[in-house]
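Late entry, evening session. Most of the bench is empty. Finally got around to the prediction I had been postponing all week. Sequence below, unchanged from the version circulated by S.P.
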Amino acid sequence: MKFDFDFENATKIYFGKDSLKNLETELNKYGKNILLAYGGGSIKKNGIYDKVVAILKKCDKNIIECSGILPNPALSKMLEGAKLVKENNVDLILAVGGGSVVDCAKGISVAAYYPGDDVYQRYWVNWEPLQDHKIVPVASVLTMVGTGSEMNGGSVISDIDNKIKTGRVFPPNVYPKFSILNPEFTFTVSKYQMVSGVFDIMSHLMEQYFSGDDDNTSDYIIEGIYKNVIRAVKIAVDDPTNYEARSNIMWDATMALNRIVGLSKTQDWEVHNIEHQLSAYTNCSHGMGLCAISMPYYRYIYKFGLHKFVRFAKEIWKVDPTGKTDEQVALEGIDCMEKFAKECGMITTLKELGATQEMLPDIANSCIEGGGYKKVTKAEILEILKNCYE
């Protein structure tokens, strides 16, 4: 392990078929006023809303609802939720839904008592340290997996008016206090949403994996999780209610971004930076955007981290190196990933996601220049986007 690190993660996880039973115990630790945050209403169709509300009422809680949180949560909704929190003296924000709902809940918790009107600029755009103001506790009941937001400080929020989508990783006091993970709650998610979340998991792992030239424990953990994701999603695509497969995917998602696998590592995150601006212009599914960008991006930078891409090909995709150059092995590994994505029904071109060629220069110009093995410029980002188009 090459670099010193600190690690703290105080989120309590309740995992399994009976995990919702623990909600009552946790709710009794908080005050009377609960902000119930959720998305477009799918939790009402699948019955999760009724189960959660019944427990809230049993605990004699006053429920304030913040519904309609989008898959790419909007700044306007975050500010609306923050206003509700302050007006109703909310004691706990309970996010019921996928990662976007949890991301928005964290944003609400941070924004509610922020002493000013520039919270997005200062905390999300500028990444300034949190000021000394009240942070409202957050908890989650997860219904879709991929982001890992249930056990980290990440909060990605979109300023729709200005076409800015940016994420911020907040310190541990913003992490969910507890998260309830019942794999059965993900069974009704569509195949499209499921595989989109799976590529989000894969991308989180790769953003942390493709960096550095040292031998460290984190990379071995990443390889194990990545291989399990591949195995589990193949089963889940054919059998969506296979509990073992869906439970493994759910825990893989949490492990991929609760900081464990990134310890003592430099990291990349340029694929995410590019995708954020892609979805700011197209409102595409985050995981599908990552999928469309990843293969062209890695084909563009692989020579600068050739040793790691060779290892990725051999360890993850079982590429036989016999009679091949390192470059051929590395590229075959990326080809294997692309083939896998297509077999699972993932989107691999920007055109399929609603982007137009006319958008690409604007998207590129709005992106953050960065990367791991190769620092890409805006001109190079445009070239990568062109390679992603069709």
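Two things to note before I forget:
The chain has two domains: 12-185, 191-388.
Residues 157 and 179 are 21 Å apart (CA to CA).
Will write this up properly tomorrow.
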